[in-house]
């Protein structure tokens, strides 16, 4: 029941990366039909050119984290959603999307299985962009600019480096809006 009702895509693979089981959300997130998804290997869901690297990481993770964790009963997940470096690009039928991945190992009889819980971050990324950027120009808004400035000031202080800041002010811009209208003013800002 949990497997079917979670909002995340759940994909169970074997050690070789063959997809054994998945929920309907996996089909929705990755954009494949049931028949198509059943034929895929987990490496088919990573960006082009990354499959070999992904295979090596998977084998290392199995050998150094999953197997020892299952033997000791103290499984420590290095790719949990609570960690800061778990964001990846996943390849869907429609293209690349940002995702968070959490891996958990378990045994089905004597066969090792890995459960990948995949969360699509597309909507979250759109919301973050809207919160931190001007809707017209796409430039950092005041809040975002202040955060970046404080971060760079701290870095300059920490490394005892100089920091240059350039501010741009458009004089008499109100006159353009008043004379030609806001649509023309918007076009001028975008250009």
Short description:
With 191 residues, the chain is an alpha+beta fold.
Verbal overview:
With 191 residues, the protein is α+β, with helices and mostly antiparallel strands. The chain has 8 helices and 5 strands. It has helices at residues 2-5, 24-30, 34-38, 51-72, 122-132, 142-158, 173-180, 182-190, and strands at residues 9-13, 19-22, 87-91, 96-108, 111-120. A 5-stranded antiparallel sheet has the order 2-1-5-4-3. Strand 1 and strand 2 (19-22) form a beta hairpin. It is elongated and about 75 Å long.
* Class by SSE composition: alpha+beta
CA radius of gyration is 23 Å
Low-confidence sequence ranges = 77-84
The residue fraction in helices comes out at 40-55%
Give the overall pLDDT as a whole number: 87
- The helix count comes to 8
- Taking the alpha carbons of the first and last residues, their distance comes to 53 Å
Largest pleated sheet: 5 strands, antiparallel
Q: For the largest beta sheet, what order do the strands appear in spatially?
A: 2-1-5-4-3
Q: What string, H for helix and E for strand, traces the elements in order?
A: HEEHHHEEEHHHH
The 3D shape can be described as: elongated
The fraction of residues in strands falls at 15-25%
Counting DSSP E segments of at least 2 residues, the number of strands comes to 5
